[in-house]
Amino acid sequence: MKISLIGAVGLTLMLFLKPASADEAGFLKSIGGKWSGNGSVTTKIGSRPLNVTCRFDSKARGPSLVMEGQCRGLVVVRRAVSADIRANGTKYSGTYIGPSGRPSRLSGSRTANSINFIVHWSREINGDRTAQMTLERIGAKGLRLKTVDKDLKSGRLIVTSDIRLTR
User: Fold this and answer.
1) Beta strand pairing status for 142-150 and 64-73?
2) DSSP state of 42
3) Could you read off the pLDDT of 67-79 as tens digits, one per residue?
4) Measured between alpha carbons, how far is 25 from 46 in angstroms, rounded to an integer?
5) Which of 15, 35, 19 is nearest to 27 (CA)?
6) Distance (Å, rounded) from C-alpha 25 to C-alpha 148?
7) What angle do CA 141, 100, 122 make, to 5 degrees?
8) Maximal CA-CA distance, the chain
9) Which DSSP string corresponds to 34-57?
10) Which residue blocks in the chain are alpha helix, DSSP H?
C-alpha cells in the first residue's frame, strides 16, 4: 500500500508539473509574431506622458521569448526596446532593455493571460530601482505592455507606460 501511495503521489506530481512547462511554451508561442500599436510613456513621474508608436517582432522558442522593437514619439525621437524572457516552470526571468539602452532584470510569473514582472532597473528610476511590468495577451490579436511605478512622494502607483499592440 505504501508503494502504491508513493507511486500515485509521484504520478500526480508529474501530471501537474509537466504541463506547466508545455503551457508556458504554448503561451509564449501565442505572443510570437509581428506587433504594432501605440500608447503613452511617462519618462518621469509628474511629467506629461509622451504619445508613442511602436513596432515589435517576437520570436518564441520553447520556454523562451525574444521581443525586439522600436518606439517613436514626437516624430523624431526613436528608441530601440527589447526583452528576452524565459519560463522555468511557472516562473519567468529575463532582461529588458528600455529607452535608456541599459539592461534591467525581470522576474515574475504568469496569471491567466498576463506575465507579471518585477523590473529591477540598472539605475534609479523615479527615486528607486523597481517597478511592475505586465505583458498581457488580449484575445488572439492583442497585446498590452504596461509599466507601473510607485510615486515616492504620494505613495500612489502610477502607470508610466501603457502600450497596446495588435497583429
Assistant:
1) unpaired
2) -
3) 999 999 875 677 8
4) 39
5) 19
6) 26
7) 100
8) 72
9) EEEEEEEE-SSTTSPPEEEEEEEE
10) 2-31
Which three three-digit cell numbers place residue 142? 492583442
pTM, two decimals, is 0.83
Collapsing DSSP to helix, strand or coil, 11 comes out as helix
Take residue 162 and report the three cell numbers written for it.
Answer: 501603457
Grid cell, residue 35, equals: 506587433
Which three three-digit cell numbers place residue 66? 525574444
Cβ contacts of 81 within 8 Å, gap of 6 or more: 54, 56, 67, 68, 69, 70, 71, 97, 98, 99
Beta carbons of 69 and 80 less than 8 angstroms apart: yes
Q: Give the integer Cα–Cα distance in Å for 137 and 158.
A: 21
Contact 67, 87 (CB under 8 A): no
Average pLDDT over residues 74-94: 87
pLDDT tens digit string along 104-156? 999 999 999 999 999 999 999 999 999 999 999 999 999 999 999 999 999 99
The identity of residue 69, as a single letter, is: G
**C-alpha–C-alpha distance, residues 35 and 117, integer Å:** 20
For residues 138 and 163, give the distance between their C-alpha atoms in angstroms, rounded to a whole number.
Answer: 12
Give the number of C-alpha atoms closer than 13 A to the C-alpha of residue 111, restricted to the C-beta side. Answer: 4
